[in-house]
Amino acid sequence: MRKITLEALQVLEAINRCGTFALAAKELHKVPSALTYTVNNLEQQLNATLFDRSGHRAKLTAIGELLLKEGQKLLISAEQLEKRIELQQKGYEEQLLIAYDQLIPFHNLIFLIEDFYQACPEIGLKVTGEVLGGCWDALLSHRATLAIGVTGETPLRDDIAMLPLGPIEFAFLVGKHHPLANHQQTLTNNEISTYRSIAVADSTRGLTTRSSGILPGQSILTVNTMQEKIDAMIAGLGIGYLPLTQAKPYIKSGELIEKNVQRLKTKGIVSLAWRPSLIGKAGLWFIEQLSNKTIANRILKMSNFD
C-alpha cells in the first residue's frame, strides 16, 4: 500500500501555501481536524516530521520541503493526465500534428491558429513546414495527421481524404544585382540554364525526392527553407521560381525582378489532406474552416498585396 497519496500531497501543498491548517482547510472545504489527521497519518507512515508547529504558522521541515517539491511534480502530472483523459472522452486529440507546404507562408496561417485557440484553448498544436513531397511523407509516416498545401500526385491509398484549396501561381525572378536583371527579352531555357538555380530541398524522409523548376545541366544551390531561397535570390546567388504571392513584396520593393520566360512554370493546385481514421474534433475544426473558400483563399494570398 502506498504511503503517499495525491490527497495527502494536496493537503501538504495547501497548508504550506496558506500558512495555517485553518486557512488551508477553508480553501479545501474541509474541517481543520481532517487536515491534522491527514498530516499526522502521513508523518506516522513515513516516520518523519513534516511540519514545524512551534510558531504561529505551519512551516515545513527539510523533509517536508523535499516531499512537497517532488510531490508537486506528481500533482502536476496527475492534473495533466486528467485533462488528457477528459479531452479524449470528448473526442479531441491531445495534440494535433499539422504539416504545411512552404509554398504557403506561415504567417498566412497565423489567423487560423489564433481562431483555433479561441475555439480549443486546451489542445496542443505542432506545426511543421515541409517542401515538395514532405507533406505527403509527414502524413504517411504519422508525423502529421493533417497536411495543408499538398501538391503532386496523390499516393494510391484509400485511407486519405483530400480537399482542393486552390491554385498557386509562380513567377520567375532574379535579384536586382543579378546579370539577368537588365535583360529585356523573353528568357529561353538555354539562357536560363547557364545561371545557377536556387532550390529548396525536398523535405521527404521516406518517399522519392522531387525537384521543381530545374533545367537539365543547370547548376544548383540547395537551401532548406523558402525564406532562405528568397534571401539567396535577393543576394544574386541564383535565379528561380517563387510563389507569386510570396514574391510580390520583393517585386514591389525592387529587390527581385520578374522576368518573362519561354516556358513559365504552370499553376499548381494545392490541397488539404488528412487521414480520417486519426482525425478528432480538433482536426475536424481545421477541415471545416478550410472548406470555406474565403478562408482557403486567405491562406493562399497576401492580403496586403493582392
Condensed summary:
This protein is α/β, with parallel strands linked by helices and 306 residues long. The protein has helices spanning 6-18, 21-28, 32-46, 62-89, 110-119, 134-140, 189-193, 226-234, 244-253, 281-290, 293-300; strands at 51-52, 59-60, 95-101, 124-130, 146-150, 161-168, 170-175, 197-200, 220-223, 240-243, 256-258, 268-274.
Task: Describe, in plain words, how this protein is organized in 3D.
Belongs to the LysR transcriptional regulatory family. Helix content is 40%, strand content 19%. It is of the alpha/beta class. 28% of the residues are buried. The mean pLDDT is 87.
Number of helices: 11
Strand arrangement, largest sheet? 4-3-5-12-6
Estimated radius of gyration = 29 Å
Mean pLDDT: 87
Shape: elongated
Count of discrete domains: 3
Helix content: 40-55%
CATH first level of the largest domain: which class?
Alpha Beta
* Annotation, overall tally of beta strands: 12
Low-confidence parts: none
> What is the helix/strand order?
HHHEEHEHEHEEEHEEHEHEEHH
Largest sheet: 5 strands, mixed
Which strand-content bin applies to the residues?
15-25%
What distance separates the N and C termini?
Answer: 68 Å
CATH topology of the largest domain: D-Maltodextrin-Binding Protein, domain 2
- Strand pairing plus helix content: what structural class? alpha/beta
Q: Secondary-structure blueprint of this entry?
A:
Blueprint: H1 6-18, H2 21-28, H3 32-46, E1 51-52, E2 59-60, H4 62-89, E3 95-101, H5 110-119, E4 124-130, H6 134-140, E5 146-150, E6 161-168, E7 170-175, H7 189-193, E8 197-200, E9 220-223, H8 226-234, E10 240-243, H9 244-253, E11 256-258, E12 268-274, H10 281-290, H11 293-300
Parallel strand pairs: 3-4, 3-5, 8-9
Antiparallel strand pairs: 1-2, 5-12, 6-12, 7-10, 7-11
Helix pairs in contact: 1-2, 1-4, 2-3
